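Changelog note: in this version the structure field was regenerated for every chain. One regenerated record is shown below for reference.
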Amino acid sequence: MPSTTVAVGSAVGLHARPATIIAEAAADAGGLITLAVEGGEPVDAGSALMIMTLGAEKGTNVVVTAEDPATVDAIAKLVATDLDAE
């Protein structure tokens, strides 16, 4: 499956608000989408709670994997964006 690695852009990491935004986008995209910190186990990107278990802080590299390359790009863009600044 296609994947890419991107650094977390949110100033406080993937806490509740960014995790919820990412999970909603993943659920809307459908299919299998996972996030993982490098070297860690992947979690379901459609679950905000699972995303928060990654403990990913600003600048942490996260691997985004999905069945569709466009979905990988869309979710990776969200991970890299400071979702608390909006």
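Spot check on this record: The mean pLDDT is 96. The two ends are 31 Å apart (CA to CA).
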